[in-house]
Amino acid sequence: MMQRLSMLVLIVLCALTGYYLLSQHVWERAVQVEPDAEKPLFTGEQIKTVQYNADGIRSYTVDAEHLEHYANIDETHFNEPVLWTYHNGKDEEWRISANYAVLSDKHILTMTGKVRIFNLLPNAQIHSVATETVTLDLTTRDFWSDRPTTITGVGFQTEGQRVKGNFGNHQMELLNDVKGRYETTPR
Question: Is the pTM of this model over 0.85?
Answer without folding.
Answer: no
